Structure formats: C-alpha cells, structure tokens
Amino acid sequence: MSSSETVTPFVEGLLHQQVVMVTGAGQPIANAIARRLGRAGARLALVFLPEHEQEAMEFARAVGAVLALACEPSDPQAVGAVVRRVTTELGGVDVLVNASLSREPGRWVDLAAGQWKALLERQLSGTAWFCKEVIRPMMRKRSGRILTLLDAAPGGASRVAAEGLLAMTRALANEVARQGIAVNTLAIHLLAEEVERLAPAQRERLDGDRGPLGRPGSADEIAEAALFLTSSAANLMTGQRLSATGGLW
Amino acid sequence: MSESQAVRQRFQQQAVIITGGSRGIGKAIALAFASEGADVVLNYGSNTEAARQAAAEVEAKGRRCVLVPGSVANPEVAGQLRDAALANFGRIDVLVNNAGISRDGHLMMLQSAAWRETVDVNLYGAIACCQAVIGPMMKQGRGVIINMSSTAGIRGRAGQVPYAATKGALIGLTQTLAGELGPYGIRVNCVAPGFVETEMVAGLMNRPGVREGFIQATPVRRLGTVEDVASATLFLASPESAYVVGDVLRVNGGLVM
C-alpha cells in the first residue's frame, strides 16, 4: 500500500472487508485478537491446533468467522492446504496473524528431547510455513501484512523460538518489502488471564517480574497493539519488534 | 598467529569439543585452542581428508586431537562427542557449537527439505550437543558453551530466512541456557560473526560486486578472517570473560551495530 493510500477514517473500519487469518484460535490471546480485528471490519479465517477444536469452533461461531480450520502447523503440507482453502474461498489473504503462541513455563534443561523439538517444530517451523504460504497470494495483490507474536520472557523454551522468529521476521521483511508486504512481531509478557490460572506460590514469585507498569497486561490490550500493526496505521513499519509488555523489554 | 597468542597458554590441560571443525572458522578455532594448550575433539560432517589435515595441524602443536565424523543433525553424534572427550581426556571444558549450513533462497520458493536440513544442523544439532555436555559440566562444576550465531541472527538477511531463524534461535538458546546453567558454574555465550571468507560464503562472494559491496559496508573496510572469530571465541572460553554471560559478541567489523 503506498503512502497516498493511507486512510484512517475511524478505527472500527480499519480492516474493512480484509481477509484476516489468525492462528492459535480457541486460546485467549488469539481469540482477543480475532475479536478485535473482526470488530474493525475483518473477514476472519481462524486456524486452530487440532487439540483446540472444541473451543475454537465455539469461538468461531460466537465471533462470526467466515472459516475455521484445524491445522497441525508443523506439517508444511497441512499449512499449504489451509492457506489454499482460505485464498480460494475468500479471494486471498490480506493479513496473517501468527498467534499460536505456546506459553509453557519451566526450564529448558528440564525438557526432554521430544518436548523441545515438538515445541520448536510448531513455534518456529510452523510459523515459517504459514509465512511462506501467504506470501504468494499477498504478492498477487502487492499488499499484505504479517504479524507474529513472540514471548518476551527472559528464558525458557519460548525464548529460543522468540529470537528465531525475530531474526526470521527481519530477514523476511527485507525479502518482501518491495512487494508491499510488511512483516512485524509483537512481543508480549504474562497476561492477567494467565496469572489467574497460576497457583498462589507461582503468582507470588511473579511480583518482581511485573515490570515498570506493575501489573500484567490483558489479552484485549494485546489485541489493540495487534490491530495497529495489522492496519494501514502501521504502513511504514516492517521488520520491527513492538513490545506490549508493560515496559519489560 | 599473533605474538600474544603464542605466549599465552590459557587452556592447558583443557578439553574442547568443536563441531564442524575440519574447515573454515571451526578449524581456526581448533588450532587456536591447540596453540594455547587444549586437547581437541573435532567433529566434521563428511570431508575426511580436510578433517585429517586439521587433526594433523592440531597434533603439530603438541596437542591431542580426536576426530568424530558425522553431521550433528544425527542425534547420536552429540553423545559420541561427549563420550570421545570423556574417554580420551576425562573432561569437557568447552563446547563450541560451530557446525552450520546455509540453504539460501527466498522463503516463497523454499523447499521444506532445505528448511529441515538447516534447522536440523544449525539449531537441533547445537541443542543436542548442549544437552550432551551439560551433565559432565555440572559434575565438574564448571564449563563453557559457545554457540556460533551470525549477524543474520541479529538483523536478518533477505534470502536467508532459514539461516537467520536458526541463528536467531541460537541467541535465544544461549540466553536461556546461560540463565539456567549459570548457578552451576557453566557460562554460555554466543559469537555473531559478520562476513568471514570461508567456503560457506564463497558462492555469494564470487558474484560480481558482492565482495566489494560488503567491504564498503563494513566500517573497518575488510571482510572478517577466521582468526578474528577464533580470537573472540577463545576470549569467551577464557577466564578473562568470567563475568560475561548470555552475551552475543559481534565480530563483524562494525557491519551491524
């Protein structure tokens, strides 16, 4: 989209009629993002992990998604099939939000080989497959936006994926910028919805970890940042990492 | 070899594992460690002749060298490296995860096999080697792990999505393990070289204008040498960097700051 096409009439219509694909549906963060982008006018194609089918289908009905598809992200063929179905039925993909973020706590050294591999196959390789598959339909329109969520946690398994995704985003942003495709990341930290589920002892340990803002964020606040990065308001941003973490890096 | 390296013996009686060590940066690191007194377990992928040559050069410095063939993408190789170090030298002081490949091309055209190969070697191979040495290093109460990242892992690079993704993930791995293993006396750091003249980048560098372009983009106006990277690696393995933990040491002449 060229600078002259930047129009921000009012926030509700920012994504009017745009086909927005959100992965990780059925989980709080992806749901909040999908809901917010839907309210901004997007036609939603939700993608969910096979194990989240029930929650995802319920959410898809509630939010009025046009499509809701199960997909194992570590399988490149499965990802290709899902993206083809979305482009065929909805006429393309304008926005991809990689919001299938695993937030498993715990130390890396405690993970067995099978565990870290499964995690990275979904988080890192899986995200690469989604990005790869949407580039061609986006290139046809000479416009598109890809947003990948990252965990800003200072350690743990998700940090390995996060740094990989960040470098991948910067590489890809350079590859596709001239085709009108922007690729960015949104770093998030522990959210109120997740804190609620923690045991009291775990919650206490977090007190030093709340950052400058002194409170956990909410999925809805993440969704606002996601709306910005997926809309024409962020036309000049690509290859960037935006932190919606309450001041934590 | 510089004079200061010749007189220093920072790694006497130490055992160092280096993956991807038959050529390029890995070989330079092996020779630098050997020059300063370390015995070496040298892993290599397939070039037996080059590996034998590297081993002979280590031995010419009066040190021992054990060769362990096989791609680190094979999960058994990590255990073989650990066992070779313990059986021959009785210890593992340093692991340098240097083995790396690049399968370049735009993501849109990427074959899944090319991604698979890159991730298996650059990331999963390094992870497997870390896991293999953590036990012995914890028992020793000390150890150093150094992962070879890249400027691509910091800033990305068009045409190298898989390479950048794995090199970035290595930075995340470095920081995660540094936090978890610090209390056990194990330091984990990362080296991020810029453009170093090795066989891996020869194809790129031979394209017209590319070499000159990189030189002009680099403030010190030259490409990196394998010795530049080896010096930085030895610093991170030495007691001089005792308080450097979870860091990414950029060795790129200022190309990416």
Secondary structure layout plus pairing:
The complex is a heterodimer of chains A (249) and B (257).
Chain A: E1 19-23, H1 28-39, E2 43-48, H2 53-63, E3 67-70, H3 76-90, E4 95-98, H4 113-141, E5 144-151, H5 157-176, E6 181-188, H6 192-196, H7 200-205, H8 219-230, E7 241-244
Parallel strand pairs in A: 1-2, 1-4, 2-3, 4-5, 5-6, 6-7
Helix pairs in contact in A: 1-8, 3-4, 4-5
Chain B: H1 3-7, E1 15-18, H2 24-35, E2 39-44, H3 48-60, E3 65-69, H4 75-89, E4 94-97, H5 112-140, E5 143-148, H6 151-155, H7 161-181, E6 186-193, H8 202-205, H9 210-217, H10 226-237, E7 248-251
Helix pairs in contact in B: 2-3, 2-10, 4-5, 5-7
**What level of helicity do the residues of chain B show?**
40-55%
Please state the second-level CATH architecture of chain A: 3-Layer(aba) Sandwich
Query: Strands of the biggest beta sheet of chain A: in what spatial order?
Result: 3-2-1-4-5-6-7
Mean pLDDT reading of chain A: 91
The tally of structural domains of chain B comes to 1
Helix content range of chain A? 40-55%
Poorly predicted regions of chain A are none
Taken as a percent bin, the fraction of beta residues of chain B is 5-15%
Q: How many DSSP H or I helices of chain A?
A: 8
In CATH, the architecture of chain B is: 3-Layer(aba) Sandwich
Order of helices and strands of chain A: EHEHEHEHEHEHHHE
Question: Major sheet of chain B, described briefly?
Answer: 7 strands, parallel
Greatest contact between two chains: A-B, 40 and 42 residues
Strand order of the largest sheet of chain B: 3-2-1-4-5-6-7
- Number of helical stretches of at least 4 residues of chain B: 10
Distance between the termini of chain B: 27 Å
CATH C-level of chain A: Alpha Beta
- The number of strands of chain B is 7
Q: CATH class of chain B, anyone? A: Alpha Beta
Pfam families (chain A): adh_short_C2
Family (chain A): Belongs to the short-chain dehydrogenases/reductases (SDR) family.
InterPro entries (chain A): NAD(P)-bd_dom_sf, SDR_fam
GO molecular function, one term (chain A): oxidoreductase activity, acting on the CH-OH group of donors, NAD or NADP as acceptor
